[in-house]
Fold each of these.
Amino acid sequence: MERLFWIDTDTASDDAVALMMALRSPGIHVVGVSIVSGNMPLTQGTRNALYTAELCGSDVPVYVGEDRPLLRARAHAQWFHGEDGMGNQNYPAPKRTPEPTHAVDAFLQATHDHPGLTLVTLGPLTNIAKVLERDPALVDRVGRCVVMGGNPCCEGNVTPAAEYNIWCDPEAAKAVFGSGMPIEMVGWQLSTGEANLSETDIAHVRSIDTPLAHFTIDCNAHVMAANKTQTGDVGISLPDPTAMAVALDPAVAVECSEHHVQIACADELTRGMTVVDRLNVSADDRNKDTWSDTRNTPPCRIVWALDIPGWKQLLYDALR
Ligand SMILES: [Ca+2]
């Protein structure tokens, strides 16, 4: 049976690869794509998503969403993805334009039309927080919510405390993580080290020799350089595609456990930190005030380890 996905994205180069994996996956129907301000400004993210869909031969509807975080100033990531978010490849303008409906309205409607759909979030959670504000009962109409975001019990990629998607709009993340949505959290650290596309993996992708294979490497050229500067890793870091791999095949997440998660919003040093309650202190009444947002909601599923060859194979399969 076909599984239905909705993808929320701030489309830069790793989002593009994740979109491609979903659009090319047999058995998956992507009902809609919503764009949020994040790695890229809204217009560039929209353009990148439409271009990627076109490359995949897909006419998936693309909806434009929120153009800034709930309370914070915009903070894009051209330094990591290139000025166009696509490795400065100067891709042509897409042939299609986005749908006229706002992303928040479109996603809300999609959850009524297709209750139980899988939501995959690849950017800051602003759009999703706005939808929840409109209709908190939404949580019962989302079957899975796979979130690329956070840095459970480790350092982040934008500050020592936080990963970009959560840091960018921590208030939105707090609303989503406190909503009771069935969240599966795929942190950024899962795309580091061995999970990077190594030089051998990159050569393998090139050898597949399809337009999508070359696109995957070309649009991430800037990421490869920035990744080396940031982490010392030689290779292409692909956080969104690793999250998409978990969405496509839950068996890729080989180590998981369920915990309450709080998002730090109070100060700049810890802004956007994903505080994971591994020792279940939230159950203790002494901590009830600090954990009041989440202690009565279902816990999140935290992914701690990936089947790395498995995630890479899902990528390779999408490129043929
Ligand atoms: Ca993203």
Amino acid sequence: MTDDHAATHEAEEDARNAELLIWVDGRLTPRAEAKVSVYDSGFMLGDGVWEGMRLYDGRWAFLDDHMDRLFEAAKAIDLDIGRDRGAVIAALEETREANGMTTDAHARLMVTRGVKRLPFQHPRLSVQGPTMVIIMEHSKPRIPRPIRLATVPHLRGLPMTQDPKLNSHSKLNCILACIAAEKAGADEALMLDVHGFVNTTNACNFFIVRKGEVWTSTGDYCMNGITRAKVIEVCRANGIPVFERNFSLVDTYGADEAFLTGTFGAQTPVGEIDGRVIGTGQLGPVTERIRGLYKALVAA
Ligand SMILES: Cc1ncc(COP(=O)(O)O)c(C=O)c1O
């Protein structure tokens, strides 16, 4: 990793993370010993769903939205989490308390179809009930400069293949997109939809700003990001024109600003796309304003 390396999920080094306790199926286990079976459906097949959540000042931001999305995704893949919302939140809190975290923490809560009887795909072979794991880290985003994106051939596709709204364990499509972007000299991938309109990135939602208007994709082909929804909400509440619409790379290269959204980084400026500098190449005034409004919403 060079100093110039930037990615949307880089965090400051924190020595406390070496000694974390990881929640694995109800037991808090030191990080070095935390394990799942090699027969686990998640390890073997990417068969599971997950949520990324952030702790700000003692509270999990938009916890209800994350729980709604988790249970909706589990239902969609016919996975019984085996616990109700209260029990999932209790596990989250148990992990937080065990690790002495009060703010600036990030949780990855994962639920898979569990341990399989045989090393094959059929979901009926997952016989032991779900596996649930919570990794929680001390985490402060560290993004040394605006992100560079490259457009890649990989799409987040139609809902009848792997619905792009699912936060599935298997991220291979997005990983391939990210690899292609890195090979092209960028940090992350800008992914189009099946019609060629600008859609999303491999790990975040995508917005542009043109003449004071904020544009993002229709939402049909991207992750139903909670940060994306909150950005739209704060724009609407504060008189910033915001549109979910189709737009192309021409509109994107010519934008005044571009930024990414995700729970981890909130709003991350994009400086360059396919070698074209976007606006000044730096954090723009509209993005900065939205950042402030989002921060206030989290605090509220
Ligand atoms: C592909 C993709 N897009 C966008 C997001 C951002 O979603 P959120 O704002 O809910 O963190 C994620 C996060 O998991 C993601 O994996």
Amino acid sequence: MTVEKKSIDTLVVGAGQAGIAMSEHLTAQGVPHVVLERNRIAEQWRTGRWDSLVANGPAWHDRFPGLEFENFDPDGFPGKDQIADYFEAYAKKFNAPIHAGVEVHKVVRNQGHPGFTVETSEGVYDVQRVVAATGPFQRPVIPPIAPKDDRLTQIHSAHYRNPEQLPEGAVLVVGAGSSGVQIADELNRAGRKVYLSVGPHDRPPRAYRNRDFVWWLGVLGQWDQEVATPGKEHVTIAVTGARGGYTINFRELAHQGINLVGLTHAFEDGKVTFKSDLVQNLNNGDANYLALLDAADAYIERNGLDLPEEPEARKVFADPECVANPILELDLDQAGINSIIWATGYTVEHPWLQVDAFDERGKPKHQRGVSAEPGVYFVGLPWLSRRGSSFIWGVWHDARHIADHIATRRKYEAYRDASQRERERETARA
Ligand SMILES: Cc1cc2nc3c(=O)[nH]c(=O)nc-3n(C[C@H](O)[C@H](O)[C@H](O)COP(=O)(O)OP(=O)(O)OC[C@H]3O[C@@H](n4cnc5c(N)ncnc54)[C@H](O)[C@@H]3O)c2cc1C
């Protein structure tokens, strides 16, 4: 039996923000394409986040240029469902050719002729190009130190929804980036005893001198940073838009009841041990915070801006007990810890993309999303072209670059020399 193949120039895999941005720019370039999404548009925003999650950036910033959040304070932080609705509306705005509920199983390069054969749950496609827009945060990672202990409820932050989901008792939250710190704060406010394991982090001020930190990172050129500062590749960023947005200050959170501990080291005999790096991690985070205030002050002075001074932003909180005398070991039973939330990040994987576009560690090989395998593209990956690449506003600009590249390739592919043009004219006349 011969399988009928559908043909299209470009296939985009994934209809999150990256796939939608890609589709918008391909549409503008007149590139015939289809977007296949195994779930629904913006599914990760819809069901892959905890209930109370709001955007980390204000509505004026965390959006695409072509549409504002309707009836929403531009300085406010939209909730996860509002963001999902926003992307659905955005896709509708330009009739994005999205087929939802279709999974891409396999992509292989054609032999002896250009393009790729794509196996999907709605049949086989023959395409000239494939854009992987399957997300920067795909597979939740739980480190191998996680104890094998049936008495403990252990989940990744990707599967956390709300405090009621966890059994009674204290909670250890491992990881204090934006996810870990927000979850720890929510649990603490819900009356849970919380231990928060804090590693190296950056913690920009939520706002300083009447400007949100996203504005400061923009005007200071920090969103455009092209590669992570050496030694800071694994440094997470602790920010939140929850409760209207506030600056993450770990000492302040500890005064509010959260027990801070250093990096989680090991679990053995019902005990957990922590590294003695808590104070160092907090001090480095403070240095990062103060460096941004200094850079902001210098920018204001250099440009003669009239923005109110904010000396209280430099207030130093006294060391809480858990910082003055860091906990290095905890007996899980004695501490009443019944749950562990692993806010330890995600990894990227493309098992369906069976082409020569990955290095020996399985990392995509690309330059600004244009992969080492001609005709294969990536969009939405962290640091694809710069720091902003995996974020809502950043991916839109990367997608434009990739669509430009595709349009240029198509121009080369469409070129015919004089004899070919003559033959085509003769065929048309016949
Ligand atoms: C907790 C959390 C909070 C965040 N908050 C913000 C924020 O406030 N502001 C901000 O700018 N960024 C934020 N981000 C970062 C980023 O914006 C999101 O991760 C965003 O979802 C990434 O969009 P994406 O389109 O690249 O990937 P995704 O949203 O992950 O979309 C990828 C899509 O591909 C589909 N897919 C995967 N494989 C296949 C396949 N084989 N076939 C078909 N479809 C497939 C998936 O179903 C999915 O819908 C946050 C990230 C996390 C984890």
Amino acid sequence: MFLFLFSMILNSKANELEFIYQWDTKPKIVICPDSKVKKEDVEAALEFWKTQGFNFKTKGIYYSDHCDLEYHTIQISDYASNEEPRIRGELGATNVTWISWDSGETKTLETVDVNIPVDSANRHDVIFHEIGHAFGLAHNDNHFIMTPKL
Ligand SMILES: [Zn+2]
């Protein structure tokens, strides 16, 4: 009995995901023109995060006819395999701008720019990973999607 409880505590620690950023309003998700990412891909990512205990709220997922990063928006675009990802060592990339009203830990997201590779074998895992970042999650070596070595 003691051993069983002990291993449960270890597991819950290992899988604990941490937020380094947060939204203080529900973001709009905008898919850039010509992106191969579909609304269904983003919905699948949000569904995945629900199974992990995170119910990320949005103002909706939209296809856009232009690609200008706006406030309170997660913008999604592609990059091709002949381009260097913007963050070295990562298949996808998520760049954020944020503000902090005090010197505390909480950083409030203002814009999120997500880049998804068009032709990687585990493209869906990359989308899940980058959407996790887009809602403020940090890397975690023990989480199969938020591991930095996806
Ligand atoms: Zn990452």
